[in-house]
Amino acid sequence: LPMHLAARHGSTRCISALAQLGAAPDQPRASDQRRPLHVAAAHNHAVAVRALLGLGADAAAEDANGSRPHDLAAVGLHLEALQVLLKEGGAAAQVAAQRRAAVARALRAG
Predict the structure, then answer these.
(1) Which of 20, 46, 85, 90 is the most buried (most CB within 10 A)?
(2) Calpha distance 46→88 (Å, rounded)
């Protein structure tokens, strides 16, 4: 999907252009249910993460494995993307719960 590709490369220009053309910032990929925010977080594109959140992407969305964007950033030690997700990804209580879950999953993953 084009929005996923833009997120993978961290291209905020493409993300914005695609959104203006009507592309959904939160469309899950059929194969794994990952959304563009998952992809941006997994590749540590903090600016793309911020752009997608600004377009209404759901920071709490789970992929087919139950992973949230926070989880992918934490497991990959992508601190910039994780910081943006924790700061801008939702209400304080939701972020705190997701932070705990992301850290626990990262520790289990080794």
Answers:
(1) 85
(2) 11
pTM: 0.80
C-beta separation of 34 from 68 below 8 A:
no
Rounded Cα distance, 43 and 46, in Å? 9
- Per-residue pLDDT for the chain (110 aa), expressed as one digit of tens each? 999 999 999 999 999 999 999 999 999 999 999 999 999 999 999 999 999 999 989 999 999 999 999 999 999 999 999 999 988 876 433 655 666 677 788 888 87
Asked if 10 and 40 count as a contact pair (C-beta separation under 8 A), the reply is yes
Within the chain, where are the H helices? 2-9, 12-20, 36-42, 46-54, 69-75, 79-88, 92-109
Q: Which of 3, 12, 14, 75 is nearest to 39 (CA)?
A: 3
Angle between helices 12-20 and 2-9 (to 10 degrees): 160
Given the structure tokens 């850290």, which residue do they identify? 103
